[in-house]
Design brief:
Number of helices: 4
CATH architecture of the largest domain: Sandwich
Family: Belongs to the germin family.
Protein name: Germin-like protein
Strand content: 15-25%
CATH class of the largest domain: Mainly Beta
Pfam family, one: Cupin_1
Number of domains: 2
CATH superfamily of the largest domain: Jelly Rolls
Radius of gyration: 21 Å
Number of strands: 10
Keywords: Apoplast, Disulfide bond, Manganese, Metal-binding, Secreted, Signal
Structural class: alpha+beta
GO molecular function: manganese ion binding
CATH topology of the largest domain: Jelly Rolls
Order of helices and strands: HEEEEEEEEEEHHH
Shape: globular
Length: about 230
């Protein structure tokens, strides 16, 4: 009986941890974030402004109808609208982004560690997809991919590698919603080949099973030429 009790306690603890592994529910109507880098008290990552000082502008972001510049090597632009742009999103657990693509523009493989993403295509044609996490032995990561047209919606599960590619000859526009006030983004290639300091070429050579010269070339390319951070 004692063993079963301890096992039940462990399982309940794990379940509780999983349930809490997302943006916490708000404990008040709102908590407008204060941009105080020296603060030591945090609520959902930001401290709260005195409610008496809250203004309508704390819940406002203008200009999402304007396209972002795609004049970069990837031919894409992500305009984020999260708690860093709208302080009033603090503790509310949602955010938004506009994605602009030049013809053949790419939002490269990346993950959002803190949020599921739902994507709506407004203009153009996008090839999108995500890859499952590492499977059991002797199995491969599975790719789920789809061509989206205006009016189509696609969902990317939290934490899984995904991408969007404009395979058309005209510009494309999409809007994404996230289940977090601050979903975060890790662009896979940037993180692996453009980290500071660089990951040891010996590690990457072993991981990707390619020559050391290839790894060093990729690292040099990302350090010198990659000015875009989607």
């Amino acid at each position: 009986m004692a063993f079963r009790f301890h096992m039940a306690a462990v399982i309940l603890t794990l379940v509780f941890a999983i349930v809490c592994a997302s943006d916490p529910s708000p404990l008040q109507d709102f908590c407008v974030a204060v941009p105080d880098a020296n603060a030591t008290v945090f609520v959902n990552g930001k401290i709260c402004k005195d409610p008496k000082l809250v203004k309508p502008k704390d819940f406002f972001f203008p200009g999402l109808n304007k396209p972002g510049s795609t004049a970069n090597p990837l031919g894409s632009n992500v305009t984020q609208v999260n708690v860093n742009q709208i302080p009033g999103l603090n503790t509310l657990g949602v955010s938004l982004a506009r994605l602009d693509f030049a013809p053949y523009g790419l939002n490269p493989p990346h993950i959002h560690p803190r949020a599921t993403e739902i994507l709506f295509v407004l203009e153009g044609t996008l090839l999108v997809g995500f890859v499952t996490s590492n499977p059991a032995m002797n199995m491969k990561n599975k790719l789920f991919t789809k061509v989206l047209n205006p009016g189509d919606v696609f969902v990317f599960p939290q934490g899984l590698i995904h991408f969007q590619f404009n395979q058309g000859k005209t510009d494309a526009v999409a809007f994404a919603g996230f289940g977090s006030q601050n979903p975060g983004v890790i662009t896979i290639a940037n993180a692996v080949f453009g980290s500071d300091p660089p990951i040891s070429p010996d590690v990457l050579t072993k991981a990707f099973q390619v020559g050391n010269d290839v790894i060093k070339k990729l690292q040099t390319q990302f350090w010198c030429d990659n000015n875009y951070n989607p």
